[in-house]
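Record 1 of the preview.
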Amino acid sequence: GHTASLFAGTGATDQTERSVVANYVPSLESWRLTMTYRLLNAARNVVFLVTGTEKVETLRRALAGDPMLPVTGIRPNAGRVLWLVDRAAGASVATNGGSA
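->
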């Protein structure tokens, strides 16, 4: 559920003034530079690439709008979101008549 080095429980997810920040990620014991929601939501198009069976549950939660996942904070102001999902990650996700 993290995206663009936005991880749950880190300071970057609360940043509203800056477009890019240094973000410490305790679980990785490292600093990351990340774009903030402010910049990401100014995009005209956002594309997520999701692959692998280990992403099935996270993808399900993300599509359900789980607020604990930083990815759900990506909601372009005037743009659109496209999800590219492989068969493994999308195995248990219902589609609107399409094929996984």
